[in-house]
Amino acid sequence: MPDTKTYKLSFIVLTLVLLLCFFANISLGSVFIPFQDVFNGLIGNPTENESWQYIIHEYRLPKAFTAIIVGSGLGVSGLLMQTLFRNPLAGPFVLGITSGSSLGVALVIMGASLFGGAFAGIFVSKWSIVIAASLGSFAVLLLVLIISNKVRDTMAILIIGLMFGSITSATVSVLSYFSSAEELKQYIFWGLGSIGNLTWDELFIFFIIYAIGIIVSLICIKALNTLLLGENYAKSLGLNLKTSRLLIIIATSLLAGTITAFAGPIVFIGLAIPHMTRQLFNTSNHKILLPAVFLFGAIVMLICDSIAQLPSSDLTLPINAITSLIGAPVIIWLLVRKRKMVF
Amino acid sequence: MRFLTLLVTYSILLSSCKQEKQQAAIPINKLEGTQEIISYAKGFSITNYKNHKRVVVNSAWPNSDKVFTYLLVNKGEKTPEHDINSKIIKIPIKTLVAVSTTNIPALEYLGVDNSLIGFPNTKYICSEKIRKRVDNGDIKELGNDLELNIELLLELNPDMVLGFSVNGVDKKLDQIEQLGVPVVLDGSWTEQHPLGRAEWIKFVAAFYNKEKEADSIFKTIETDYLKAKEAAKTVARKPTVMSGSTFKDIWSIPGGESFIAKYLEDANTNYLWKENDNNGSIQLNFENVLEKAQNAEFWIGAGNFDAKEDMLQGHKGYAFFNAYKNNQVYSYTKRKGAKDGLLYYELGTLRPDLILKDLIKIAHPELLNDYELFFFKRLE
Known about the structure:
Helix content of chain B: 25-40%
Distance between the termini of chain B: 70 Å
Distance between the termini of chain A: 15 Å
Largest sheet of chain A: none
Shape of chain A: globular
Oligomer: heterodimer
Structural class of chain A: mainly alpha
């Protein structure tokens, strides 16, 4: 195992890359803005074209911060899930958190067709989708927590989470079957994920919940390292398994739940970032892994978003298409090169 | 503790949207004003004051309980006192981004189509004049109507965006608004009367100070429509009509209170679902429709099909209907734009007279000898 010094260097490099990606992300977009003007816009100086200032401040900057929150948050929640369930295929989706959000959003967008206008009326406000998605994931989380109190087996919780996912997606199917084309389109677009439609106010609330999630996961680092040795071993080392499990599940739900609420169900990042990080850092120590996953997730998300914007073209692509298209081959390449999975 | 934090956050979120509703109830403007005459449309009203107009949209989407108030203030005039929920728009507007093709004919008829500088999915536009401006780059392509390219929109910096909402859940429109570009919602598609839809040209005109023009355009269309309707009434025979098409095994059929049903009534036909009280579309299963409509004389508005053969690829069961067997299936696919957009969707809202005449020509051809179908065609 490399000593801590090497890790220090890696962290410095990762942080620099993150800063570089952040500035690249802000410089690139559908509208071409010369670098000098991007810089001026960032520090509040007048830009050559007045609307550029606006584009940088009100659109690209919040989008870049959203990308950092989404990438790091999903990466961390994926890492927590994989360690808790000792399953390399686990991610924020497996607890049914994301499908809970989808159900909430589907009810708001498509519920009117099935239940009449009164239902949609309850939620109509600019927060409707966020609230519906949060309540959805919150409801599923509550059920999982109640059950995890009765069921002691982590594997059983995993299966129950998957079953919740099936129930909610079935309900969504029924709703979409009876919806109008326009409503379906709206729901599908939500499902494609979008990190570009948050304003500073929304970003602020988003950030607070996300920060709580990150703090809770930091508290869990010791428990995570012990869990790697197996549940029975962890117990014999004096770990309060029930509390740790609860904390880890809460952290994941806070992170994955809010991210899905604000940015839609972003695929791939939660599952893949922990693997990419393990391949590159070759360690299973969460003291190293967790901050590395954090930085790495943010970097990958910024890169994916820059590509999705198809710089200098009028088109933009849905972020989910890019996360999978770019990410999956990278994992395959890493696995082939290293010839084994680090887990 | 963490639950508590979560709960507190949720309640903050919930209370913020409650506040929004309460504010909407504050009454405003005690000045005397004159109402613009709106005869058929129920979704909007215009009140004229000395230096400004107040435009209220009360049906931006079906069953909406939200009221949108726009204060249209002439450029150079002082903005009158108003409550915080009224949106101020300086008129006449010079530049516009629209998102629905149904707005394009209105702009053209009013002679203000030059103000259109951005549009999503420009490929759906049929109008040759507007297409030319798209090709010249005078109208910028803005991506998709649900995911408008915000950067391009901000760079265009239009005086306003003329949008629409399916159910009030539109993140993008809210965002555009917050970025300082006023968004005005067009609810013409919620009107139940065909002439009500057309009358929304007066709504668009208000932003350009072109009410007079709008009034005379609408009068011509109205007269034409009513004349055709009167003529259709003179025929005693009411042919039976079915409508809609199936996807998988769900058949979407216009409800008895929908604007399509209104057209079929005005064309003096016997629409098989006229007793239904739904004003949107109803979903029925295939057998249900077959039982009721197998012997219908005409099948009007059968999806976007171009030919009878294409229909069978969608569902074999279409062949069981008499209208299909007797070559009496009509769809609104006669006229298409350069990139396959349907003119019916674009111009149909403004020209109900043409749609009605088409239907009369189909159901009672003897009434309109010299008339040639405009939007509709018989599928071969």
